[in-house]
Structure formats: C-alpha cells, structure tokens
Amino acid sequence: MLEQRYRWKNRHLRMHVSILDGKESPTILLKNALYLNQTFRQWMRANIWIYEDRIVYVGKNLPAHIGNCEIIDCTDEILVPGYIEPHAHPFNLYNPHTLAAYASQFGTTTLINDNMPMLLNLTKKEAFSLLKDLRSIPTTMFWWSRFDSQTELLNEDEIFSHSNIKSWLEHDAVLQGGELTGWPKLLDGDDMMLHWIQETKRMRKKIEGHFPGASEKTLAKMMLLGADSDHESMTGEEVYNRLMQGYMVSLRYSSIRPDLPELLDDLKRLGIQAYDRLMLNTDGSSSTFYEQGITDQMIRIAIEKGVPIIDAYNMATINIARYYGIDHLHGNIATGRVANINFLSGIEDPTPVSVLAKGKWVKHRGENTNAYGSINWGEYGLKPMELDWELSMDDLQFSMPFGIKMENSVITKPYSIAIDVSGDELATNYDECFFTLIDRNGKWRINTLLKGFATNLPALASSFSSTGDIILIGKSKPDLLHAFNRMKELGGGIVMTEGGETICELGLPLGGAMTDLRMEELMNQEKELLEKLQERGYAFSDPLHSLLFFSSTHLPYIRITQQGMYDVMNKTVLFPSIMR
C-alpha cells in the first residue's frame, strides 16, 4: 500500500535530480509550451521536462542531456492539467477500466470512484487486489468508502462491519468517506456512522455528503458532524447555502440531473463570482450521456456561460486536487507533479488533441494509442453469473394490495392496485406491469405491480440492480420466464422478450453487473435498449437508473428491497420478502 502514498522510491527521486544536473536525459521535452500556471493564474511560456511519469522541471531552461528524449515543439499548442472527475460511479454497465480508457480520450486522467459494488459483490481481498492492479493503467484511480448500502440488505451488518469500513478507510487509494446517503440515520443518532466519520477525519480524509433538498439548518448540522462537500445542489440558492455553511460544492451535469447550465445561470444571477470552492462532476452517468465528452464538456459549458476561462479549468483540476490534498501530485503543471497533461488546439476548446497520462501518450494528435490493454476480471471474482436454481410460474404469483408508481426515472410512490392480476397476461390499455425482485441465489422474492414503467412490454429481466439481485418487469408471465432463462444463459445481463423471442439483450458477464465491451460498443447497445423500451411505452429518459434505483432507499418514497416493500419516509418494511 505504501506505493500509493510514496509514489516514487528513493532511487527514482535521485534519478529525477540527476536529470537537472545533466547526468541523465528526460524522456519527453515539451518546448516553448503555453500552459496554464495556476499559481499566477496566467497563461505562461515554459519548457517542460518529463521523466517517465513525472514532471521534473518547468521553466525557461533546456536540459543539457537529451540522448533518449522525445522532443515536441509546443509553440502552437495550449497545455492544461489532466482533468479530474471527483464523483465517478464506474460500474454503470461499463467498468472502471473501460470508463478510464474512454475518459482519457477527452482529457480526464484521474477518477475518484465509488466502492459500493465492490463492497456488495467482492471479498475484501479481491477488491484490494483490483485496486492495486488498476494502478498500472495510465489513468490515476482514487476511491471512496461507503458507510451504508443505501438500501435494506438482509446482511448489512456483515458487509458494513467496523473491520471492513476501517480497512477501506485506511487504504491509501481511498480519499474520502461517503457519500452520506444514510445521513438521516446519522441525525437520528447512529453513533457507528459518526465514529466512522471521526475516523475518516482523523486520517485527514474528506467526507462527502448527499443532501438533496437539505435546509440551511440541516446543512449546518451535517457540517458540524463532519461533512466537507456536497454534489446535490439543484438550484443556485442551494449552492449559495452550501458555500455559506463552508462546504466544497460540486456542480453536477449528469444523465439524471443535467443541472450545470442552470446552476451557472443562477450563480450569475446571485452575483457569485468566486469559484475556488466549486468543482465539476458527472455523477455516474449512462454511457450515452458521455458520447460528446466528459469533464471537457462541463468546462465548455462553463466557458459558454461566462465563467472566467481559468476558473472553468480550475474547477476540473486544481480546485479538486487542493480540496483532496493531492495537489502535490495532481491538478497542475508544475515541477514534481504526475505528468498528466492535455494538449489543446485553443484556449476555449477543452477537448484535447493529445493527452499524456502518467507520462504515456493515451491520445496523440487525435488518435487513440490503445494504451490500456486488457484485464482478466475473473481474477477478482468478476465472472459470469452461475444460477443453479430455476424460476417457475409459482414464483410469479401477485396478490399484494398496493404497488409502485413511477413519478420519473427514479422517484417511486405507492398506489392501490385496482386491476385483476390473477391471469398470466396484463392488458396493454393500462400501464401496469408485473414486478418481481428475486434473490440472485434464489432464496427469496417479492412480487408487486409497477405502474408507469411501460404500456406494452411483455418482459424484461435484469441482473443489473443496486444489490445484484434480479429484476423482472413485464405484462406476460411466460415471457418473463423466457427473459429470465435467456439472462441466465448469458451469465447475467438485461434481456427483453416478446412472444417467446428475444428482441434485445445486453450481456453483463462481469458478475451480472458490468460489460467488458468498449464504451463505444456499449453506447450502441444502450441506445437500442432505450429505443426498444420507448417503443413499448417507457416514458422516461434513463431506464438504467430506473433499474439501479428501484431498491435505493436514499430516494423517496417506496422501494422494493431484500427485506421487502420499504416505506422510506417512515423507515418501515411494509411487506416482507417471501422465502422460496
């Protein structure tokens, strides 16, 4: 673990110094570069020497020894630091490796990632082995440690045990605790969560909040209990309130909440002109949302909305690095930093022409260098699902008095069931579907109706969910069986069937949660899935987040969880899950 804290060993440091003494050659020399100097808040000219993954000098001088050096004339290019994504959920069908490789093409060379799926699906040994091996890719990967499952698990105390959380917090790749989706429990007196927050602060690491709609008083309370930042502002007034209470505020532009343009308009309306306590994030968007860019797209929006250009870049680089205490390595172009550099064709065009990540060309003159290789996911326990049980018509019995109604992609409310659900098919002149959550190990299930998801969807089966359990949605019980069996054959995935035929499928061979496809291939499959669902009456924008959040109790009002139908506001299991 010390390799993360002490990036370079003594012999490396001596080598770096010897380059300045003219005894060794840098590996890359960037001559006469116009670069963003964030100390002076100016665009300045300099020569930048790089040795392997480190910037060893920035200034007017040229190296005395250039025997093994790639020399690049940067007179006509603009250099900025590699961008940092401070709030990534790298398991949204894509995986951490494919997201990193794709993001690098748009200049995002550092990701700070959610660890939830690893807590739920991998052993600690498997997870830490994956973290270690991901250090070898050009992208820099940091992580955060969750304190709660944001659902109602049957074995939550085992997964979120003190020893597990403590091990994650002590890991050098972990920069923060949170996000605090379980903050109501904290306010209600959960001392174990408060202890973990205290431990995080003792280690000089950050606590990220998750406080949608929180009042000024609640924000103040959470700051007193240890929160440092929040990414849930939906209006300029909410940004203002967080800044007033001392928060670092992350402005969001995501597939669920593309708020950034409106937030920037609101900041201008409110007269907020200080940007040092602001950063940018995309909050785990769907792959198709990233088609036009990632962090670079947010910087472009900020520039178009009148944010001073240097501040626009700083919100994606040095502001984040300073907040997390990693600015000695990341977020700026200066002596001693990791060589993450974006080469731009113009100051107002943040999408890079070339990208250096850890001193390696991941994009060169517009071309992807394919620097990321491949990963054997099976070594970390991420293999195709092996379901050794059968789904039967007996599992598809629906008799609950109320169901779940969708208000939008992710918000669900209870409603009284007033239709006949005794048959094997539901009519298409109303928008109810059969809805089942079933244990991936076949031990329990819960059946209800889902209103508002689709009008004429025969069947969808998905192993993609927040807990890794299996979701079944549709109007035809025979098709639900067919979709489940096809998903089982794939080893996990999302499958739609109609009339006993598969009409769309997206395989998820990495534990039933992720694909190993390149992002561009995933985008095509994701578009097809959305198109097929919309043809069958899906009226919202993001079916993947619908599937992901059906069990998420950090959102109102009613959820379907491992423990059963759950009333979020009253923190009560209304109907328990049924053992099979």
TrEMBL record:
SUPFAM superfamilies: Composite domain of metallo-dependent hydrolases, Metallo-dependent hydrolases. Its EC number is 3.5.4.2. InterPro entries: Adenine_deam_C, Amidohydro-rel, Metal-dep_hydrolase_composite, Metal_Hydrolase. It comes from the Bacteria. Residues 78-362 form the Amidohydrolase-related domain. The keyword Hydrolase applies. GO terms for molecular function: adenine deaminase activity. Residues 410-571 form the Adenine deaminase C-terminal domain. Keywords: Hydrolase. It holds the Pfam family Adenine_deam_C. It catalyses: adenine + H2O + H(+) = hypoxanthine + NH4(+). PANTHER family: ADENINE DEAMINASE YERA-RELATED, N-ACETYLGLUCOSAMINE-6-PHOSPHATE DEACETYLASE. Belongs to the metallo-dependent hydrolases superfamily. Adenine deaminase family. This is adenine deaminase. It comes from Neobacillus ginsengisoli.
